[in-house]
Design goal:
This protein is mainly alpha-helical and 87 residues long. The chain contains 3 helices and no strands. It is found in: Cell membrane.
Length: 87
């Protein structure tokens, strides 16, 4: 059951982050889930240093927030990398 919750929370966090970062049109549901799950890992890693963090395997507002913040950081890094490429 934890994996289903992880996919749902990751998808929501990735979707919200892609809307904030202006990448919503270029990302599908699959990539929103991937960005949200990777963002959760990043958010929990960074949140551990500041004394907060949540788990994505059970729903909590803290877990959703850390996944969202981590997904925004991930999309920010991806935007910086893509700007450096020749299109």
């Amino acid at each position: 059951m934890g994996w289903i919750i992880a996919l749902i929370v990751g998808g929501v966090a990735g979707w919200l982050a892609s809307m904030v970062m202006g990448r919503d049109a270029s990302m599908g549901v699959f990539w929103n889930i991937i960005v949200g799950i990777i963002g959760s890992v990043i958010g929990n890693f960074v949140g551990g240093y500041f004394g907060f963090g949540g788990t994505i395997q059970e729903f909590s507002i803290t877990g959703l927030f850390t996944a969202f913040v981590g997904a925004v950081v991930l999309l920010l890094i991806l935007n910086l990398i893509q700007r450096g490429r020749v299109r």
